[in-house]
């Protein structure tokens, strides 16, 4: 669990990167250590050779002791253009390599160090360098590589241990710093978000920017703005919900009052008074529109609209029932109806909700043609392809007014006829969206209006249907 936290991962990455940096430092450090080791052997050999220069004759045992202390086999000095073997002893094997330290680059030093480190056998090498304190023109020694390799390994182990300690301490310090300056402020933001989520209507839970890190403070300021807007929106939503409940109650009571008034107005039609006869139809129409508006408001305000119960239904039967009902409602108006639906077409839908959608579109078309006073035609056509079922409702009416087109699917704003509520298409669109489909206006104009219902054969999300 710790490895999945920001602190844990930062600790691991810091340790790895510090160790990687130490490894990159290790190689040139070992190369430099080897160079210093060889230079110290040249210096020791030069000091050992001074005893012979001071006295031409030295004891053989003393010569062996000098060479052993210098850890070399032979010492050669170049003085006054004369090459002289100062100290010598038997060499156990032929010379394997020669290293001239007078003019050598860093890459060559690293290469030679790695060769001496990874060659495990004890070899004999020749080392050439400059004598110290101008003790000659050149000094040359032969020496074994086993002590050199052992010293390099010992030095490398000490370097690696030191690197490990530095890595752990560095990673620990960075870990504590990250927890103090990054993780703790981030957890504070998370706690503030959790607290706000528990009661978003409470303005006291809105985060107050306090982070010292610039990026975190910008995040807190952005979160504060978002929370402030959301709290205001929730309060507005509550007020609208309360207002909607009040409107629903008023609409319910007003509908009952208007229904009673409609019954009384129906009896006025039997009056012999010419003025009453002339005004009664207008009164009845006004009352009917008011009742319709109340019923539409109540329908739209219902939060308990059930989700569709999807089943396989024949679309032809639904369309036929809608057309039959609207044909009777058309009465004396010159409106013709046509159906172009394959008899065997089966769609996946809620039959009751699909009936309401198609009936709403056909009713709107009938009312538009009737209001124009001109003859017209309403047609319902259904097709299908591999992806979806398509239902088209078209009419030859006068088309939708500009305001209705602009607010077509917005409640109380997209009314297409005088006295309408503008809720019919909104409810129909919501019902189609509940099926995962979409309701859209294909075209409208003086030649008529065409709506398209698309029901997908594949199940899609509501967000995709909305888009």
UniProtKB/TrEMBL annotation:
The keyword Iron does not apply. Residues 249-459 form the Histidine kinase domain. InterPro entries: HATPase_C_sf (IPR036890), HATPase_dom (IPR003594), His_kinase_dom (IPR005467), HisK_dim/P_dom (IPR003661), HisK_dim/P_sf (IPR036097), Sig_transdc_His_kin-like_C (IPR004358). It comes from Tranquillimonas alkanivorans. This is histidine kinase. It comes from the Bacteria. Its EC number is 2.7.13.3. Pfam families: HATPase_c, HisKA. It catalyses: ATP + protein L-histidine = ADP + protein N-phospho-L-histidine. SMART domains: HATPase_c, HisKA. GO terms for molecular function: ATP binding; phosphorelay sensor kinase activity.
């Amino acid at each position: 669990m710790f490895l999945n936290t920001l602190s844990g991962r930062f600790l691991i990455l810091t340790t790895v990167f510090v160790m990687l940096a130490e490894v990159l430092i290790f190689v040139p450090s070992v190369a430099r250590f080897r160079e210093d080791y060889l230079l110290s052997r040249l210096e020791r050999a030069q000091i050992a050779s001074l005893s012979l220069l001071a006295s031409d004759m030295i004891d053989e045992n003393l010569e062996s002791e000098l060479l052993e202390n210098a850890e070399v086999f032979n010492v050669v000095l170049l003085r006054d253009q004369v090459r002289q073997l100062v100290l010598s002893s038997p060499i156990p094997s032929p010379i394997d390599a020669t290293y001239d330290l007078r003019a050598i680059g860093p890459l060559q030093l690293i290469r030679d160090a790695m060769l001496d480190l990874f060659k495990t056998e004890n070899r004999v090498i020749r080392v050439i360098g400059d004598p110290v304190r101008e003790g000659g023109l050149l000094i040359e020694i032969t020496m074994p590589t086993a002590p050199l390799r052992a010293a390099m390994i010992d030095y490398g182990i000490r370097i690696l241990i030191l690197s490990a300690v530095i890595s752990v301490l560095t990673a620990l310090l960075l870990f504590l710093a990250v927890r103090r300056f990054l993780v703790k402020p981030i957890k504070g933001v998370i706690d503030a978000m959790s607290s706000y989520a528990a009661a978003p209507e409470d303005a006291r839970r809105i985060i107050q920017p306090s982070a010292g890190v610039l990026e975190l403070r910008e995040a807190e300021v952005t979160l504060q703005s978002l929370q402030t807007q959301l709290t205001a929106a929730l309060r507005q939503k509550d007020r609208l919900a309360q207002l909607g409940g009040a409107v629903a109650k008023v609409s319910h009571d007003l509908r009952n009052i208007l229904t009673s008034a409609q019954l009384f107005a129906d009896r006025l039609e039997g009056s012999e008074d010419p003025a009453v006869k002339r005004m009664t139809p207008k009164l009845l129409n006004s009352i009917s529109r008011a009742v319709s508006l109340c019923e539409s408001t109540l329908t739209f305000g219902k939060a308990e609209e059930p989700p569709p119960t999807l089943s396989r239904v024949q679309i032809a039967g639904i369309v036929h029932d809608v057309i039959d009902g609207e044909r009777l409602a058309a009465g004396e108006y010159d409106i013709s109806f046509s159906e172009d639906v394959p008899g065997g077409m089966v769609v996946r839908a809620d039959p009751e909700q699909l009936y309401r959608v198609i009936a709403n579109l056909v009713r709107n078309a009938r009312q538009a043609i009737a209001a124009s006073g001109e003859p017209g035609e309403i047609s319902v056509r259904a097709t299908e392809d591999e992806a979806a079922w398509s239902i088209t409702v078209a009419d030859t009416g006068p088309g939708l007014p500009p305001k209705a087109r602009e607010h077509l699917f917005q409640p109380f704003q997209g009314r297409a006829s005088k006295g309408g509520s503008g809720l019919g298409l909104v409810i129909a669109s919501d019902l189609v969206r509940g099926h995962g489909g979409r309701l859209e206006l294909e075209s409208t104009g003086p030649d008529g209006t065409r709506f398209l219902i698309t029901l997908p054969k594949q199940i899609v999300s509501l967000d995709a249907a909305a888009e």
